[in-house]
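(Deposited chain)
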Amino acid sequence: MRFIKQIALGTFLALGVYCAIIYSSCTKDACKTVNCLNGGTCSGGACTCDSGIGGTNCETIYRELYGGQNGSGQSYLGNAAFSYPSLDTAQRDSGYANHTDASNTLRFSYGNDSSYDNMHLMWTDGTTTMLSAAITLVSNTAIGSTFSVTPTAGGPGGAYTISGGGTVSSISASANLVAVPTNTVVPTIYITLSNCTKQ
């Protein structure tokens, strides 16, 4: 009887060692055929991507979908609606009025840095540069990204601090901006850039 117990115990231990080896080799092999790109790392057979990068194998650098490098950006042409909800009587008499301008362009570009969330936005109204600012991609999906605008001096004569955010994809862009005056002579402007399609 004792001999049978020893055989059973030996078999049990051998089986345990075998299962441990099989389990550990399966865990180690889960990433063997996975190729994570752009600095991504594999864990459990799936890639974990750095911020600003996506796709099954981290193959998509989102900012490359929306802009060119070092100023050779991609342009999106659309309309800009300007509203002045806080107008006082004197400002209203000075000619400020809600209006929409056509031929507004949003241009997205990026540098050669490795912070893949960083981009640059230039907004022009006709031939006038209204804003040239750093932006950060906040949320990225397969259909596009949202971004936030670093508060920057802009508007005619740089008389405003402009901030806000928007969305961009490989085919369209939009933005909602607030231009706060650096003096109280002019009113705060709310700007909606819409129907901006890639050119």
